[in-house]
Amino acid sequence: MVVCGLACWRCRWLLPLLLGLAIIMGIIALAGRGWLESESAPYVQQASLWESCTRGEEDLNWSCESLMDYGWGRAAAATYLVGFVILVICFALAVIAFSIEILRFNFVRGIGGLLFVVAAFQIIGLVIYPVKFTEEIPLTGDNMFSWAYGFGWASTVVVIGCAFFFCCLPNWEDEVLGNIKPTYYYSSPERAPYLN
Hints:
Layout: H1 14-31, E1 36-38, E2 45-47, E3 51-54, E4 63-66, H2 71-99, H3 105-136, E5 143-145, H4 147-168, H5 173-177
Antiparallel strand pairs: 1-2, 1-5, 2-3, 3-4
Helix pairs in contact: 1-2, 1-4, 2-3, 3-4
Membrane topology: Multi-pass membrane protein
Family: Belongs to the TMEM47 family.
Keywords: Apoptosis, Cell adhesion, Cell junction, Cell membrane, Cytoplasm, Membrane, Transmembrane, Transmembrane helix
């Protein structure tokens, strides 16, 4: 009986899989129009990372203005996008690292360090956006930061978790490579008399 724990070689694809999930959530955040939305009907305000749109209560057409006209809008988009690009690079490096038989543990720790850089860039973008948006864009009605903004934070949280695991993985080098024998624990000596 062999249990596949977190540091098991057969489970090595869990971390790249989580990075892939973070990439998917990052794509949703980058493409989604739900960074800010009206909280209740009538829905007169919505915004993405790239633009802010409003409409009248009876109007069906949205009137949009680009957030790239603002310095803070460019800064928020650039920092989140730079973090996302580094995340994609880390995903590719993780797939390469876990595909080769002789795993380079210093290489894995470097991926963890890059993931902390990704998290820093994404957090900067995710903090700049709501602070400056509420200061400089006139809001209509009750609004909330919505699902696409939430996907941005979810991606960042997954990246932080993966960064810790990538940095700590070299501490379990023998377990990951299968260089140690499993230890079995028995509840009483009567069940295993041959161990005496």
